[in-house]
Amino acid sequence: MSTTTDGRSSKRRWLLIATNCLALLVVAYLFARATGWISAQRHLSTPEVVLAGLLIVLYAGFANSYALTEFSIGPGGVKAKLAEMEETQDHMRGDIEALRVAITGLLTNFERTHLKNLDEMASYQVHYIGPMRDELERLLKIGYAEEVQEGALEAMKQKHEGSMEEFNLRQYIAVTALGKKYLAVHAKYAGEEKE
């Protein structure tokens, strides 16, 4: 964040604190007036009421940018904690964009296709080729897929390597719950990217 932005943010924060204090005083005055602590002879005149209204309007303007996250009155005095909502939202947008990039870039298109087809198709017919084994091994290592039985990947290689015959990959590999979650999250973000 630049020094100019820091300076402006600091000025806005102090202005908001001052406005909050004044608004609190107005509320305290109205409460004291309503309960009779302030007599009819000592009440506010029209200009003072207009000033109080102006303070409340200013406060409403700042309410869009800041949120009161903590407020307490105790022996130590009045304590108020404010958070600038816009900065938090910008930070969250950045985090969401980073997650989107991570989720969509975690698997190659081929790995994602294998995972999706293993999950959705009753019979996923494939030809055995070398790169496919590497893709499946990666899915196993990440935990998105598992062998149907121990040694299934090696058995698949032994049986189908060099053959151009199609076989059902689901006889050897299954999608895990984590893999299903990945597919659901990826589908959500992939849908957002297309918009």
Structural overview:
By secondary structure, the protein is an alpha+beta fold. The protein has two domains: 3-85, no CATH class; 106-194, no CATH class. It contains seven helices and six strands. It has helices at 3-35, 46-63, 85-105, 109-120, 130-142, 152-160, 177-194, and strands at residues 66-74, 77-84, 125-126, 145-147, 167-168, 173-175. The strands form three sheets. A two-stranded antiparallel ribbon has the order 1-2. β1 and β2 form a beta hairpin. α1 (3-35) packs across α2 (46-63) and α4 crosses α5 (130-142). The two termini are 30 Å apart. The mean pLDDT is 76.
Structure described in brief:
The protein has 195 residues and is of the alpha+beta class. Helices cover 64% and strands 14% of the residues.
